[in-house]
Each structure stands twice: as structure tokens, then as C-alpha cells.
Amino acid sequence: MKLTAAITAVCFASASAFAPAITSQSSTSLYAGTPAFTGPSLDYTGGDDPNSSNYVKLSDALNDADIDRRKAQEAADAREHATQRRREERQKKIDYMVQMPDNTPAGTVDDFMFKEGVQSQLDKLDEDLVGLVPVKKRVKEIAALLVLDKMRRKLGFETSVPSLHLSFTGAPGTGKTTVAVRMGQILAKMGYSRRGHVVLATRDDLVGQYVGHTAPKTKEMIKKAMGGVLLVDEAYYLYNAANDRDYGQESIEILLNVMENNQDDLVVAVAGYKDRMDKFFSYIPGMASRIGNHIDFPDYSADELVEISMVMSRELEYDIHPNAYPVFKNYVEKRMELPFFSNARTVRNAMDRARMNAAIRTFEKFAIQGVNGGFCSIQDLKEISPEDFQVLLDDILYADTDKRIFA
């Protein structure tokens, strides 16, 4: 009995001794926040999450979107401020126009025509070109628009730059390049272009031979023409309907973009035969819609071509003998029936040949035959005789067919 009581006392004492330790450990675990288990933590520590890079990307995207929104808002505010300024300027102009007397002088049309040098360019056009009444009329109409537009600007009226891009249709030698030069000068005189020069371009100047070559060539020609006129001769060769991979399409797209966005600093004129140009415009409707002035150049008559020869002879200080004109007109009429006739260009070539015939005739007469001791007069050096043109006519009348087409 005493032994049993002793064992019980020892066990109770042992339990009492360990109790504080158990109680202390439990309290620490519950109130200090330290998990009692040793498994993986549920708290995000940042380093062991495989999606952490995605969180960074999302944050950057949100920041970029916020920046874009701020920029868009700033742009919208700037547009609103600009619109408000335009409204204020417009109102000032309206107030000015209301208060301005109706009889306020803007100057006479002649003042603008002569002071700006427009009339001198029109006079030169008349001197340079024989005939072509419809062409000259159209050029004068364009000049009238520019003059009146400048007068309106002087008084404060609303104005806008008209479409000055040009289309010239007609056969070779009908004066297209000459008109382009005069138009460039008129535009410069009126302040619609900085320089007024003309740059002539063909497909070879604009289109490359391999990928990546066309754009630099086209842009280089445009750069040369900036401030003036870019005249694209035989523009229909830029487009090849049979080959959708032709590099000319790239050149056309660049030209269209420039015609739309740089029309205040560049005038583009396209030229060529009328039927081919019409087909070209049907393939590229965007080109036709950007051109505000279509001018057709008719062929010259035989009498007009004879008159052109007179103008050329005066410029070169030659005198055509009165009896030589009927011979030359006969030559022109025959030549017009043959292939490769080029109007004024053919006349220029004929005049060059007539001058050569005159030189040969004069040289043989005075240098070889020794007429008048070899001394020739001023008139001998200036005159083109009937026989000088007769040589040209005989070449057409009696030469073989294959040779006649080049006469």
C-alpha cells in the first residue's frame, strides 16, 4: 500500500515539472505568430513566384497606357487651344471686314499683273509659242485666278491655295515644256513657289532596276524640284498594267503622297499623248483627282510651223529669203504625212539642216570657187535660200521609203 502511494506521488511530481514547459511552448506558438507546422509558406515573398516577371510587365504596360493617355490629353488640349486661336483670329478678321468701307482699294488688276511680273511671263509665252490659242487661254485663266487670289489676301479675305498640279496632253513638239517653264515663272512671281524652276523627269529618272532602288531615285528627283515644277514626261510609262510587280507603282505612290501633302511647295506636271494619258488616269484615279488643271495641246498647222521657222531664224539671226517660204511649207506638208513627225521639233531639225546647207553653199561659193576673191558679205552669212530648203524636200520626194521616215 505504501509502495503504490509512493509511485503515484513520483508520477504527479514529474507531470508538474514538465507542465510549465508545455504551457510556455504553446503560448509562444499561438501568440508570437510563428506557424507550428514546417510546410511551405502561403505568404508571397517575391522571389519564388514563377509569374513575377508577368507582374512587372503588367505594371509597365499600365504605366505606358497612363503616359499615352496623358499625351493624348495634351494633344487634344493643344488642338483646342489652336482652334480657339483660329476662332479669335477669324473674329478679328470679320470685325475688320465689317468696319472696312466698301470702296477700300485693293489695287488694280494691271498693278498686280505688271508689278508681280505676271504679264511679262504671259508676253514671253506669246513670243515663244506660235498659235496654241486654247493653251494660252487656259494659262491666262490660271494666272487670273492667282492674281485675284492675291488681291483678296491683301484685303483679308479667306483664301486657299488652289490645286496647281498640271496635266499636259499632246504630241511631241507642241510646246508642253515651254508652257511648264512659263507656268513655273508665273507661280514664282505670284509667291506660289519659292524658285519657279522646272525639273524634267522620265521613267528612267524615277524608277529603279531592283528592290529598294526606286524610292531613293524618286525622292531625289522630288528634292531637286522642290520649290518649283516637276515635269514627268510620258508619265504613263510609270505604270505597267501587265506586271503587278513593276517598280513603277512605288514611284507613283510616292508622287501621289507628295502631290497631296506638299502641294504648297511643289507643282507636279504630267505629260504625254492624250489617249495614253487617259488610260493612265483610268488605272491611277488618284492621280487624276489630284490634278486641277488639264491642258490639251493641239498639233500645229503647216502655216503655224512655217511661222515657227521664222521665229527660230530671228532668234539665230538668220534671214529666210522670201522665195524660200513656199518651198519650206511644201516640205512641212509632205513631212507631216510621214511617221515620227514631232511638230516644232521637226521644224527645229529642218532649220538646223537648212543652216548646214547654207553653210556648205556659202563655203563652196567663196572658199572653193573663189567668187569675189573669197570675200563674202554679211548677208551671205545670214541668208537661207530656197535651194537650202529644196535639199530637204528632195530628200523626202526621192529617197527610199525606209530612209524617208527619218528625213
Give descriptors for this structure.
5-stranded parallel beta sheet; 2 domains; Helicase, Ruva Protein, domain 3; two-stranded parallel ribbon; 407 residues; Rossmann fold; alpha/beta; 7 strands
Question: Could you characterize the architecture of this molecule?
Answer:
- The strands form 2 sheets. This protein has a 5-stranded parallel beta sheet with strand order 2-3-4-1-5.
- The chain is elongated and about 110 Å long.
- The protein contains 17 helices and 7 strands.
- The protein is of the alpha/beta class.
- Mean pLDDT is 81; it is low at 5-34.
- It has helices at 2-31, 52-99, 109-115, 118-128, 133-155, 176-189, 203-206, 214-225, 248-261, 274-283, 285-290, 302-315, 324-335, 344-368, 378-382, 386-398, 401-404, and strands at residues 166-170, 198-201, 229-233, 267-272, 293-297, 319-320, 383-384.
- The chain folds into 2 domains: 109-297, P-loop containing nucleotide triphosphate hydrolases (Rossmann fold); 302-404, Orthogonal Bundle (Helicase, Ruva Protein, domain 3), CATH 1.10.8.60.
- β3 (229-233), α9 (248-261) and β4 (267-272) form a beta-alpha-beta unit.
- It starts with a helix and ends with a helix.
- It comes from Eucampia antarctica.
- Pfam families: AAA (PF00004), AAA_lid_6 (PF17866).
- Belongs to the CbxX/CfxQ family.
- Keywords: ATP-binding, Nucleotide-binding, Signal.
- Residues 324-389 form the CbbX AAA lid domain.
